[in-house]
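tl;dr need the bound structure. longer version: we got a ligand (flavin-adenine dinucleotide) that a collaborator sent over and nobodys looked at where it sits. i said id run it. heres the input, straight from their email, havent touched it
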Amino acid sequence: MTEKKIVILGAGLAGISTAYHLQNKAKTTTIEKSNCLGGTARSFQINGFTFDITGHLLHLHHLYTKNLIQKLLKNNLYSCERKAAIYSHGVLTPYPFQVNTYGLPQKIVQECVYGFKKAVNNYSKDEKRSTSLPFNLWSLRTFGSGIHKHFMKSYNEKLWGIPLKDMTAEWCGMFVPQPKLEDVIRGSKKSFDKSFGYNVTFLYPKKGGIQVLSEKLGSRIPVKLNTSVEKINWKEKLVKFEGKEWVPYDFLVSTLPLVELLKKMTDLPKTIQNLIPTLKWTSVLNINLGINRPNISDKTWIYFPEKKFIFYRVGFPMNFTPHVVPKGCSSMYIEVSYPPEKKIDFQDPKFLKKVRADLEKCGILQKSDKILVTNFIPIRYAYVLYTKDRKKVTQKIFDFLNTNQIFSIGRYGEWKYSFMEEAILDGKKTAEKILSLS
Ligand SMILES: Cc1cc2nc3c(=O)[nH]c(=O)nc-3n(C[C@H](O)[C@H](O)[C@H](O)COP(=O)(O)OP(=O)(O)OC[C@H]3O[C@@H](n4cnc5c(N)ncnc54)[C@H](O)[C@@H]3O)c2cc1C
């Protein structure tokens, strides 16, 4: 057992996982500003409906996390098959768009296949489609002009909210399937039975929403809830919790959004301070609806690339597990992206009217459907923007923080596009690092 004092800021999965992996090996203090564990991976119940902060599905790739989650959730886990689709040009086509153009208007199918063939001929070498390219160029070179125009450009502009030339493709990795030409051609002629992508099947708790994972992982961690970090004196290695005294630390683990962490640090060197405004992100409004009709869709989620729809994605929790809706009902999570400086007036009834009209326009809702539950959750930090200088800037910041025994981890701490499994692994890695330095 090390004598070092470790303070963990934030009890989302990355923070809880750090504390979990330090159990019986170090004394830790974990604080969380909200009134429960889980951060973005939490759930809540309203009138018999269970909602996450949009759908939170478990895509597991590592044996360690597979075993850990199985051990924690035991038989409270369902294995689900992805049934994702894209709604465009008035039709639903299976996900991913690039290998499922069959069913779209013929002219669009031809543009997609022709463009892909041309891209393969011109840009077959990996360096010609490096992910450090601006996203629009990477997408054009990887998928060709048709798929770029009819899905990649429209969908990504809607999600990220900035011109695609101002961001790189470094976040894509496993998130954006890159098919072979033969698959693109095959999927243009008939429905495809082959699955693509990292999330063909996924796990989800049978009951209780994703919150149960956070609760189980944190069940033996003493967390000070409703406690916010106010200031950090990195020179003296002291942290102040709101309205309380300063607390000393040897190692500080932060899972706060990197921007928030830096703003709380007193006397930051100018060289670091000046980097803060270059960190950009986008916000998402999560709208959860409970509906009085069963089976409003058989899909797990649907992407909406077209501008005429206010949302970019709609998901259906009752298709992950039937235990999240009352009998005879359905539920939906709807995601609307917006720049953090913009205010969406979702209290204005006109806003929900527009959402409902769009849901009817694409056939998800019928005029006679009753909305039994409406719930809005603005997610201020939703997606980190992979701007051109993100890599260089974050490296400088992390070098400074690490030298001062501060580890900024997790999706927002490391300022990256990642998922729950990675947050758990980030916590494990950080715990091991601290123990090796102690
Ligand atoms: C719209 C959306 C959909 C997603 N869908 C999926 C999915 O399907 N599958 C998947 O695997 N992942 C998904 N993710 C990603 C997943 O939510 C994250 O990777 C993971 O939950 C991040 O955990 P974290 O601990 O790094 O951060 P967080 O969960 O953000 O935890 C940080 C914690 O710090 C606390 N905090 C903030 N400020 C302070 C302060 N001043 N003082 C004290 N505490 C503070 C917060 O309250 C929070 O609890 C999704 C994310 C979003 C935004």
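gonna send this back to them w/ a short note. The radius of gyration is 23 Å.
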